Amino acid sequence: MPGLEDLYREIILDHYRTPRNRGELPPPARMAEGHNPLCGDEIHVYLDVQGDTIVDVKISGQGCSISQSSASMMSAAVKGKNINDVLALVKRFKQMMSIEEENADTTGEIDTSIKLGDLEALQGVVKFPVRIKCATLAWNTLVQALESPER
Amino acid sequence: MTFDASVVRRDFPVLQRVINGKPLVYLDSANTSQKPDSVITAIDHFLRNSYGPINRSAYLLASEATDAYEGARSKVRKFINAPQAHEIVFTKNATEALNLIARSWGSTNLGAGDSIVLTHMEHHANIVPWQMLAAEKGFEIRWIPLTSDGQLDLSDLNTLLDGAKAISFTAMSNVLGTITPVEQIVSAAHRAGAIAIVDACQSVPHMPTDVQAWDADFVAFSSHKMCGPSGIGVLWGRESLLDAMPPFLGGGNMIADVKLEGFKCAELPAKFEAGTPPIVEAVGLGAAVDYLTSLGMESVRAHEVEITAYAMRSLKDRYGERITIHGPTSPACRGATLSIALEGVHPHDVSQILDQENICVRAGHHCAKPLMRILGVTATARASFYLYNTESDADILTDTLVGAFDLFGM
Ligand SMILES: Cc1ncc(COP(=O)(O)O)c(C=O)c1O
User: Fold this and answer.
1) Which residue of B has its CA nearest to A61?
2) Which of B68, B126, B285, B390 is the 20 to 30 A CA-CA neighbour of B23?
3) List of E strands, B55-194
4) Chain A CA closest to residue B376
5) Does B93 sit in the ligand 1 pocket, CB within 6 Å?
6) CATH tag, A10-147
7) Where do the structural domains in chain A lie, given as residue ranges?
8) Which domains can be identified in chain B, with CATH numbers?
9) Prediction pTM value
10) Largest pairwise CA distance in chain B
């Protein structure tokens, strides 16, 4: 049986206690809302996209330590990044979470050379299948925000 | 015979399970209850010896199966003190029973300009069927709000009921444990000319039920929360109302005659039991009713008041202000369902940490999202006790929560 230390790594607790990039961005920043219908976790992702770059990102909402720390780490990982690099990172992250993308051929190869850095701490979540949805909520919401028009 | 939960616990095979050297601490009975040996055996025995179709054939198996199925109906009638067995309709679950009322009684009696009354503490099963119907028929839904300690705020009850055609409300909240004053609400409804529908899902398994004392018009509950199997629920309704209602689902068993031009409905209760019913499940439910009756529902309730008081006291003594228990503070006005909030720890994380000690609690919105919004939370961790839970279960819960504070304490 996997232990709690596999799930609640120090770096996860740190992001949960002091979340990065917390807040909102005013319009016209893009925004998407993600819900985990099973448990009621809620995440709002705000993006300021200039050209191909995510210039700024803010996160609001509430949820468990896994959903909130994943959101915080994600915000730190995508801020200032090129959108294509971000989409590649999303794929890489989902792969770590053992999520097989449907129609994988249209979404392209997963670049395994992409460094996950702090995000690696979330790997332990895979041993707790019911929590995988908590970890991926922010990432799915990020993709939705990228697909949304400016407000 | 005095009630001893540690003896009762031995009747439940799954509770003997040891996982990683530790006992199972099952605190999720508000969600669904575990099953005693007698229920498992009754189902097994029936399947091995007497299983057959009901109502349709002359051979022995069919008549034994019919007796078993109808026997379960009689047991349920007696258990809730309903006047007549044919007023008991078996459904798939309480949700289907409530949908049946909305679709059958509701669609013939509610239209534009009408209104019904619900409360802020309802389960989605007693909200969404009415919202679905209201979207079609255009009637108004009025809401009874809550007081700050999680009781129904009945100060405007008569105003809310004025002109209303029905009120549908829970006898016990599945989130807060609140026991509502059923008789008072029913009599106010009747004075206003409204019918009264009681969602008794959380009360029937935990305390004596007398639908005639309630004077209710419809009562719905599920077998799986009262030691019976999943897959069967109960609707009790007044004969005069059931008789006047159109059928809910159409098909076999619910007809007296079918011609090319149309059909004629069967008598109660077959009229509302279209298709092959949950035969095996009914036998299991009958055995569950026997089991609960042998323990005595007064004793079950007394045990739950005691264990609730003990658990609430232990949690408060140990954690003080750092823990919030939603709902009424007095064990006498509530069931054994404790929705708890730990300062700085999310309910999901609470349930994860409790799982390490095989403690089963539910974290989430408990199918009561409107109530969650009113409480100002997105989720709670809910520990619900039943007749097989002992003080030791409460102690393990209290002790294990230390780990949550240690890990997340800010
Ligand atoms: C108060 C209340 N009403 C209705 C239901 C629905 O019961 P079921 O899911 O068995 O139909 C439940 C159980 O979840 C409940 O607690």
Assistant:
1) B378
2) B285
3) 88-91, 115-119, 140-144, 166-170
4) A62
5) yes
6) 3.90.1010.10
7) 10-147
8) 5-29+296-408 (3.90.1150.10), 40-294 (3.40.640.10)
9) 0.93
10) 73
